[in-house]
Amino acid sequence: MSANAPVEPLGDATQVAEFLGISPVTLAQWRQQGRGPRWARVGRWIRYDWADVRAWVQAGGDRDDA
């Protein structure tokens, strides 16, 4: 029997925007444009996996030179 690692709660748009230093409106615009960290709709809410957010930042974030 293997022990499961603790699961980190998903972040909402306000939390992720604050973490990234942007407004929730900018984050919403990025979603509409297909930019920003990966997100998922959970019911009627937008949620972000913190591992995906950190990976996106480490990969250079929203760089236009890609």
UniProtKB/TrEMBL annotation:
SUPFAM superfamilies xref list: Putative DNA-binding domain
Domain Helix-turn-helix residue range list: 14-59
Database matches in Pfam families: HTH_17
Record-linked InterPro entries: DNA-bd_dom_put_sf, HTH_17, WH-like_DNA-bd_sf
Gene3D superfamilies associated with the record: Winged helix-like DNA-binding domain superfamily/Winged helix DNA-binding domain
Taxonomic superkingdom: Bacteria
The protein, known as: Helix-turn-helix domain-containing protein
The organism of origin for this protein: Mycobacterium talmoniae
Taxonomy of the source species: Bacteria, Bacillati, Actinomycetota, Actinomycetes, Mycobacteriales
